[in-house]
Amino acid sequence: MSVLERIQAEVEGHPVVLFMKGTPQFPMCGFSSRAIQALTEAGATQLHTVNVLEDPEVRANLPRFSNWPTFPQLFIHGELIGGCDITVELFESGELARMISETQAS
């Protein structure tokens, strides 16, 4: 399985996926930490995370897969939502909680 197929499988296999630096318990950058905090506060209980620091192939190829250059990267229902800034903006507007509740209802 190629790295792009592995990324595709992660994105399709979970309703909410965050590719991040570190883990939810130990984020390794401020942007990943803020994204996790916003997702947690928005009620994301079924959040799947991928630590890109543990998988250099995913870290190198995810920007090509998603057309998004930075980390973290949030996918909901297989669709790229964006990085930290977009995730936090969606949280502040209440939109992230709505999107998360839809994933957990389905």
TrEMBL record:
Q: Which residues bind glutathione?
A: 21, 59, 71, 84-85
Annotated binding of [2Fe-2S] cluster, by residue: 29
Concerning Gene3D superfamilies, the annotation shows: Glutaredoxin
* GO MF assignments: 2 iron, 2 sulfur cluster binding; disulfide oxidoreductase activity; metal ion binding
Q: Where is the Glutaredoxin domain?
A: 16-81
Report if keyword Iron-sulfur is assigned: yes
- For the keyword Chloroplast, the answer is no
Looking up InterPro entries in the UniProt record yields: Glutaredoxin, GRX_PICOT-like, Monothiol_GRX, Monothiol_GRX-rel, Thioredoxin-like_sf
Which Pfam family name is an example for this entry?
A: Glutaredoxin
For this UniProt record, the keywords arranged alphabetically read as follows:
2Fe-2S, Iron, Iron-sulfur, Metal-binding, Redox-active center
Which NCBIfam families does this entry report, sorted A to Z?
A: Grx4 family monothiol glutaredoxin (TIGR00365)
Q: Entry's PANTHER family?
A: GLUTAREDOXIN FAMILY MEMBER (PTHR10293), MONOTHIOL GLUTAREDOXIN-S14, CHLOROPLASTIC (PTHR10293:SF72)
Query: Which family would the database say this protein is a member of?
Result: Belongs to the glutaredoxin family. Monothiol subfamily.
The protein's name in its UniProt record: Glutaredoxin
